[in-house]
Amino acid sequence: HMAVAAAGVEPGDEVITTALSWTSTATCIMHHGGIPVFVDIDPRTYNIDPARIEAAISPNTKAIIPVHLYGQMADMDPIMDIAKKYGLYVIEDACQAHGAKYKGRRAGSIGHMAAFSTQNSKLVACGEGGLFVTDDYELYQRAARVQQFGEERLPDGRRNYNAYGMGWMYRSQEMVSAFCRSQFRRLQEYIDILRENCNYLTEHLSGIKGLRTPYVLPYCEPVWWDYKIRFVPEELGLDINPHEFAIKMSEALSAEGVFLTRWEFVIPDMTLFQQKRGFGKGYPWSFPGAREVNYDVSQYPEAMAAIQTIRGIYCIKPPNGLKLMKYYVDAFYKVFENYKELFR
User: Fold this and answer.
1) Whole-number pLDDT of residue 128
2) pLDDT grade, residue 11 (50/70/90)?
3) Which fold does the domain 2-185 belong to in CATH?
4) What are the angstrom distances between the C-alpha of 59 and each of 87, 203, 227, 289?
5) How does pLDDT run across 160-197, given as a tens digit for each residue?
6) What is the mean predicted confidence (pLDDT) over 220-228?
7) What's the confidence (pLDDT) of residue 19?
8) What is the pTM of this model?
9) Contact assessment for residue 161 and residue 174, using Cβ atoms and an 8 Å cutoff
């Protein structure tokens, strides 16, 4: 929300983002009266497809929010080129990507601003909360107003107790902040364990027909907040609904001790957007000057297909190590070698 406000988004303005993510990717836009405009995903990475962004730009567009989903960064170079061409801000949603890299640059260092989450499942966690980053002092000041009652920060960090605009109370407690900062000392060690675990899974699962392991762009270094697999029944010659196949295979894997999750949404398919409830009276979509935005899910075929067939292997994070990963691999082979028993 702080970044959206700093980008100058006003009621009725539009912000482009991915169709596949967590709800907050879109609702942070609405908190400042903005209207989310969704773009379909790259079916390999599940991140926003840069080739589809330009067609979604309108005279009301102010910013783009690419999400570094599952800890792999979005393809940032073409996104930044488009933003420069149209004079748009880029806000990196790096909530799952602490320490991830794109062509040697870390998440949060390419866009004009970025947001990281410190919710308890993240790589740097302190229960709840988040981090705002920018290298632009004016953007920092605009964001600071939202963070603390509309006030600006003095050069020495003190408050001046004057509201220059609308503000909220997004301050963090000192103890929570100290705990959060301390974890950065251990972040690389944490990432190294995650990469060892996930590289092992990819090495041993990638040969299983009917299963796809995560695709990594050659110039990306993901941090594996989630290890997302995809069930592909057609590779086994099965004429079955892919969603049904994913459910039955997930249930069988769960019975073997593999904890699989699916937490993400096709955001425009949610009731909030299908019924355009917002704040009531149709806001923000009914603000004067707002453009009609259509959330017909047929616009997002790749996201809709992915949501039916992807699952995350949850317990990949430390203190879990290769011992557990080996059990997981054995379970996958057992289930896939006997998949016909599930579809008699």
Assistant:
1) 84
2) very high
3) Aspartate Aminotransferase; domain 2 (3.40.640)
4) 11, 47, 38, 11
5) 888 888 887 887 888 888 988 999 999 999 999 999 99
6) 97
7) 98
8) 0.95
9) no
What topology is assigned to 187-263+301-342 in CATH?
Answer: Aspartate Aminotransferase, domain 1 (3.90.1150)
Domain extents in the chain = 2-185, 187-263+301-342
122 belongs to the catalytic site: yes
- C-alpha distances (whole Å) from 119 to each of 128, 268, 301 are 4, 24, 30
Exactly one of 62, 84, 103, 122 is catalytic; name it: 122
